[in-house]
Amino acid sequence: MNKTVGFALTGSFCTFRRALETLTDLCERGYRIIPIMSFNAYELDTRFGSGAFFRSELRRITGNEIIHTIPQAEPIGPKKLLDALVICPCTGNTAAKLAAGVADTPVTLAAKSHLRNQRPVVIAVSTNDALAAAAANIGALKNRKNVFFVPFRQDDPQEKPNSVVADFSRTAETLAAALEGRQVQPVML
Q1: What share of the chain is helix, strand, coil (3-state, %, to 5)?
Q2: CA-to-CA distance for 183 and 46, rounded, in angstroms?
Q3: Which CATH fold would you assign to the domain 4-179?
Q4: What b-and-e string marks burial along 72-87, b requiring 16 or more CB atoms within 10 Å of the CB?
Q5: CA 145 to chain centre
Q6: How are beta strands 4-9 and 152-154 bridged, if at all?
Q7: What pLDDT, in 10s, does the model give residues 19-58?
């Protein structure tokens, strides 16, 4: 395949184990993966697992060191290090920063730096307020050139009516389409 893909995790900690399954699938499909983590994803221990565990798994699965600082992320664009960038999971906070052009974390800087090369960014959204406060940001990104969404759905309409999570099992399909400049449909499941 010879495609190098950045795989970025942001702080939707409850989805990290599914993200690792997605990462494994991409590696098995022949993508060379460069792992990237936001500050919080890299550092924090939560009830879903320790930061050390997830860092260890990312290194084990990909065989590569993790980009987790601003200086490490900055060369992604100028050196054209990636063919595509997957943000899985992408929190509402990260989506808001991307929509506003804010690049103050390793993940948002990686995206900004990568997009300058007109290459695809694939977003697997996971946020409790996607159908509320984050809706405008998701809409803005949906209209942005070279930004593609993994299809998503409400994950608990009764208890969390504004929450959506991407169908991580469709990440590889979305990535392949994005590399061809296409958005898989439907986006909303």
Answers
A1: 40, 20, 40
A2: 33
A3: Rossmann fold (3.40.50)
A4: ebbebbeeebbbbbbb
A5: 16
A6: unpaired
A7: 999 999 999 999 999 999 999 999 988 899 889 999 999 9
